[in-house]
Known about the structure:
- 35% of the residues lie in helices and 20% in strands.
- It is of the alpha/beta class.
- The protein has 2 domains: 2-58, no CATH class; 65-251, Rossmann fold.
- The strands form 2 sheets. A 7-stranded mixed sheet has the order 6-5-4-7-8-10-9, with helices on both faces. It has a 3-stranded antiparallel sheet with strand order 1-2-3.
- Residues 98-99, 101-105, 119-122, 125, 156-158, 176-178, 195, 199, 202, 208 line the site of S-adenosylmethionine.
Amino acid sequence: MAGNAILLDKAAALAKRMHLSQISPAKQEEFNTLLVYTEKGLQIQLKHDRKSRRPVTLHVDFLSESLNYRRQHGGGIKQALARAVGIKPGIRPTIFDATAGLGKDSFLLASLGCRVTMIERSPILAALLQDGLERAAASHDLDKNIINNLTLVLDDAISYMNSDNKNTKPDTVYLDPMYPHSKKSALNKQEMRIIREFVGDDTDGDKLLQVAMNYAQKRVVVKRPKGAQLLTSTSPSHVIKMKNSRYDVYML
Ligand SMILES: C[S@@+](CC[C@H](N)C(=O)[O-])C[C@H]1O[C@@H](n2cnc3c(N)ncnc32)[C@H](O)[C@@H]1O
């Protein structure tokens, strides 16, 4: 009961902050899509997902088994993401993740020892990220340094980078905008498909890359699906290929 009261208070505060209507538990049945505080954290809940035709939930879980597995067995500093952003023995670049999403890439980079600023422009995704960070910080199962390496900002990365005169510029800007819509793309992965329903297509990826090139000190990295067009007409300095995607690396 006390737990429920805390969750309801959190829901009320979030609804006020985001100018959303707060629905009483009794009325929840009337809505297909809800943002709900549960014992497992803040979740997007779809009663009926159009594609899978099943109920679906989405939340940020930095303690999940899959992230834990990737952290422990993903190849450490030899994995493609680490090499792409410029991690080397004894070198941990500062990272500006301009497209934070569910924060998985940021989290992996932070767990490898990088300080990461994660920017997300969707208030809903930023709320999920904030909740995920708070739960991870309160957990005894996770090295506190990882969460201390992460800073979340709710903003549009283009306007943030264009107007940032006070912070030291990051070594690396990392971009993973929504993939162009394709039947074959990783968007078929359920969580990315649902995120797309909330944030739409990232049609300004080319602008994001241009601004990032003036903001990063050393390199800009763009994650793209295998076979996708470059984000702009500028060719990358080198490309790191993976099974279904690739990193286009622009050295400055
Ligand atoms: C494909 S997801 C990123 C997934 C992320 N790399 C991860 O590991 O979870 C793209 C995200 O970038 C965000 N985004 C795209 N353009 C942005 C911009 N200019 N500023 C801030 N966020 C942006 C979208 O709202 C979306 O949540």
